[in-house]
Amino acid sequence: MSTENPTIQESFTLEQLLAKEFPEPRWVVDTLLTEGLTILSGGPKMGKSWMALTIGIAIALDTKVFDKLSTQTGSVLYLALEDNFRRLQVRCKKLLSQEQIPNDKLIFRDTFKKMDAQGIQDLQELLEKNPSIHLVIIDTWGRAKPSTNGKAANYETETLYLGALQRLAVDKGISILVFHHTRKGTGNSEDAFDDVLGSTAITGVADTNLILIKDRMTGTATLRMTGRDIQDNELYLQFDAETVRWKIVEKPQVQPGETESKILAAFEEEEIFGPKEAAEKTEMSEDRVKKALGRMVEKGFLLKENRGKYQKPFTVSLPTQKAHPETTSTETEGLSPNVTSEEDNINPPSGSDNGDSVGQVVVTSQSNAIPVS
User: Fold this and answer.
1) What is the chain's alpha carbon radius of gyration, rounded to the nearest angstrom?
2) Sign of the CA dihedral 140, 53, 342, 330?
3) Looking at the whole model, is its pTM more than 0.85?
4) Which is higher by pLDDT, 73 or 217?
């Protein structure tokens, strides 16, 4: 891949702009990662680092992400700022199959300068020395972000430096994937991207925003995406604790919880109501009802109308109470067959470095030059 984007031009007249033929954006991962800056946010201990490593290995070894999404083969620079080389080695051994032959296209660093002006300049120089790099993974923004003082400074800093990363990615025609966190105690926002930790500059500057949302009822996760060059979409994923891989699954059928069931039972189909009416009919606190209503919109149990009103669609059906506690095939119909506990979905099986080695991991220290593939 060339080190400069041939479409870059300082200015266009209207006539020149309309006559110019621009190439389509390059897809590093089909329908998921295109050139530019992508922010992937999610809660702690959800398996984001496993996802980052899976993506890096797939691009370096020309395999598919989540076993389904095609990749553009190339070199990957992985800034694993929350890990060390020993942990990376263990994870790589778990992820690589016996048939996969490691190469020198996946390059690791466990330290790097903060992504201020100097850090971004250093990254640019590395990319110029290694033009085969298609993807840069930064795990996480919290470790790479320059220090700030106050909310205003935080917004200005993130706008400035994330904006510089975005411009660098566009100029080089590569993808920069930054992993980030969501706020604690989230999940009730009607727009999931409002839960991204930090200022609105993070989602505003990025070309693509991805957010990983865990569904504790089904053991699956939703990867929601929106951006300038991609269609708004969702992928339904499950983390396999045995293979430590994310895989695409069918959309799970979610049943309403106790609070949600009470609200649904209190209103007729297509009836429009607000939080106050729902609280009165269900004899629950208005605060509890408001939180539940937000979740119900996300799950598709309710439609959000104007002025804080909600509507119960005619398609919602309540679960039938069973006289016996045994779970029947009817009750589990539509659920993913491998529903496991949260811990099973997040943590890989216990183990250490005593597994069979399937190849070596290419690493460099802060002081060494990155090898050219």
Assistant:
1) 23
2) positive
3) no
4) 73
